[in-house]
Write a structure and sequence with these properties.
about 325 residues, mainly alpha, two-stranded antiparallel ribbon, globular
């Protein structure tokens, strides 16, 4: 069996086993998400700690299979170390909530770890700008996936799709370390998704969404996107288009209404789609489908010449603008 396929299968199996255990532990410790009739409208208390299952399944698989792969482990260690820090931050927040600004500071510190190990954006020559943009990217994507975790199965499904796309790209480029990270993360998220699909029996919590977002951001940095054109470096924006679009949209709506950007409010895209009359499963299909289409476009862009790549990017941006206009017209105050 191909080692990457084996890593996916191993991580998937581990997550399928660990997630029910996390459910039992969460209930015994009282780490549950209770309805609040505002953003949290599920009918019963749902256990957290799904993030612990994702973390353990992914990290254990990477460490086990890395022993059999060639190449320096430096980048892998850097990404896992930073992701481990944000996992602990999220776990602490799940058990005893901390303020958003404290979490942000800790996330920035975690983002410096991969940079220390040589993982940073390389298409900018200026070292200072490159590392500053790397921190912004790591922290931004980490919080984007956290913000997207607003509906059963949504964040886990989008993360699974994005991980598979990054797996394909890294495998095409012979970047086995990145491919290992992507395949292990995809398996862990897919295994967790079995229990998180509607109606969810467990949530990933901040521990899971922050860890998964950081992993995706770190994996995205190490790819080779400019196969035929420099425009290919923007492919990660397509792969992670759904959480990035959600984040920018919510920030813009909150700023327009004078609401604090970092405070929760029912302005999320999934909730707007639901308000338009779609069921939960239909909303998931729309957003998962959007993530898959954007992933395919990213795979196409890195193989296109610059004219076709630019046209594809412009078309995707235009479609995003139309979607934003339609979504913004939904009245969420009623």
């Amino acid at each position: 069996m191909n080692p990457l396929t084996a890593a996916f299968a191993s991580s998937l199996g581990a997550a399928l086993i660990l997630t029910p255990l996390a459910m039992v532990v969460a209930r015994r410790l009282g780490v549950v998400d209770r309805p609040d009739r505002q953003l949290k409208k599920h009918g019963r208390a749902v256990p957290y700690l799904g993030g612990a299952a994702i973390f353990l399944a992914c990290v254990a698989t990477v460490l086990a299979f890395k022993l059999g792969l060639t190449g320096s482990p430096r980048g892998v260690v850097g990404i896992l170390a930073g992701a481990g820090i944000v996992f602990l931050v999220g776990l602490w927040d799940d058990i005893r909530p901390m303020g958003p600004y404290k979490k942000l500071v800790l996330q920035i510190l975690a983002a410096l770890i991969p940079i220390y190990f040589g993982v940073h954006i390389k298409f900018i020559d200026n070292p200072l700008y490159s590392k500053a943009l790397t921190v912004l990217w790591l922290v931004g994507v980490t919080n984007a996936l956290n913000l997207l975790d607003i509906m059963d199965g949504l964040a886990a499904g989008i993360a699974t799709i994005a991980s598979i796309v990054f797996l394909v790209i890294s495998a095409q480029n012979g970047r086995f370390n990145d491919a290992l990270l992507a395949s292990s993360l995809a398996g862990a998220c897919a295994g967790f998704l079995f229990y998180n699909r509607p109606p969810a029996r467990i949530f990933m919590g901040d521990a899971g969404s922050l860890f998964t977002g950081f992993m995706l951001a770190g994996i995205a940095i190490g790819q080779g996107y400019s196969m035929k054109t420099e425009i290919g470096v923007f492919a990660p924006l397509l792969v992670l288009g759904v959480p990035i679009f959600e984040t920018l949209f919510v920030m813009a709506i909150r700023a327009q209404k004078g609401k604090p950007v970092m405070r929760g409010s029912p302005d999320h895209i999934p909730l707007r789609i639901r308000k338009m009359g779609f069921s939960v499963r239909a909303t998931l299909a729309i957003l998962w489908g959007s993530g898959a289409v954007l992933g395919v476009l990213a795979l196409m862009v890195i193989h296109m010449n610059w004219k076709r790549a630019l046209l594809t990017a412009v078309a995707a941006a235009f479609a995003g603008m139309l979607a934003a206009i339609r979504l913004a017209s939904v009245n969420m105050e009623e």
